[in-house]
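= Paired protein data =
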Amino acid sequence: MTAPGGPPPRPTGDERAAALRRLAVATLDANWEHDHTVPSRTLYPHQWSWDSAFIAVGLAHVRPDRAWRELRTLFAAQWADGRVPHIVFNPALRVGSYFPGPEFWDSARADGAPPVATSGMVQPPVHALAAWLVHRRAPTEASVQALRWLYPRLVAQQRYLTVRRDVGGAGLACIVHPWESGLDNSPAWDAPLAAVPADAAVMRAYRRHDTAHADAAHRPTDLDYARYVAIVAAYRAVRYRDGALAGGHPFLVECPLVNAALGAAEHALARIATVVGADPGPHRDRAARITETMVARLYDPVTGTFHPRDLRTDRLVPARTVLGLLPLILPDLPARQVQAVLTEACSARFGLAARMARPLPSHDRTAPDFEPLRYWRGPSWLNTGWLLWRGLGVHHRPDLAAGLRESMLELVARGGCHEYFHPDTGAGLGSPAFSWTAALALDALADG
């Protein structure tokens, strides 16, 4: 019995799991928007690409029909060239409710854009993995039919990234903006962004939406945003035609996460192919080539981790971020690289352990530019933790996977379904009701 005035009793494991499940389901239900889930009612009121993939993984545990609806709605906005836009705009929202909104992107003037307003850029292709996990969770005739509809669209997405976005000519996808990585203001992009001409005064012409709903000290700076706007303007000026990229686009980078997701997608597509009656062989072959090329182009044997390659300088970016750990999701990553990346993950930089003292940060916590409050420059995120957790399972490290899973669930138990978390204290940061945090907590709970 607790003494009067003493701390309340700590919940049992079952009680914590039940409370987390209730919170996660309530968050996803509150963010459901007729045919998709918004990441956040305040910060992100439209549909986001990789958010929807993560959300579908969680919905598969509680609302499988919505999981498939989520993916179908996103891919209904796929462009003719195969790109899946990183934002699909809700036409019911007023102009100016989000920046940069549909009027900024002006996708209607681009060749092959869908009838609905979208952005012109992409995000990491985690969708095939998500589709496979949704089907595997509850395989039914309806899920097989959903895979049949998605399969050619997922293949087109892969073709777009491996052909139209192969700016470096080696077989990897190139991102044309930090937003495409999903890790918007990561220190991984500081060096490539430094060459982008922009003035913070550019932002005076716009009204940022994010800083109206979150502390500006936790968000990208105005100078970051000025550069983001300049890069979008350059891509928009050529109407999002990728053939013009090599001629002088200001940001061209091969990202470890995007390409690891690309390889993992081919492995997932091989499994999906066996369900829908297609040949899995070409997917396995492409997966092997992507992994081999990633090791050749993005792995640094000196640091023992993966780094982005800046195609404008043909150099690896030196920052050591969580991006360098995520190639562990590739099941065919060679043993030498697996061990080296595990050593990096377990170092003081990231602190992965069977019993973690602190949450997994998004950036090297020993680096001088580590910022524990600012977005992707230090805080802990559930989606990158989830990807690493999946990779640890793939490479048979149940001890480390269990430690990371417990750390992720404890973040949500203590801080709620926040967008991201302080990498030391675990305090919730960003949006307080964030969908992918809820969804991935549900997936981690189901593995207990």
Q: What stands out?
A: The mean pLDDT is 93. The two ends are 28 Å apart (CA to CA). Strands lie at 47-48, 87-88, 253-254, 299-300, 305-306, 309-310, 315-316, 420-421, 428-429. The first strand starts at residue 47 and ends at 48.
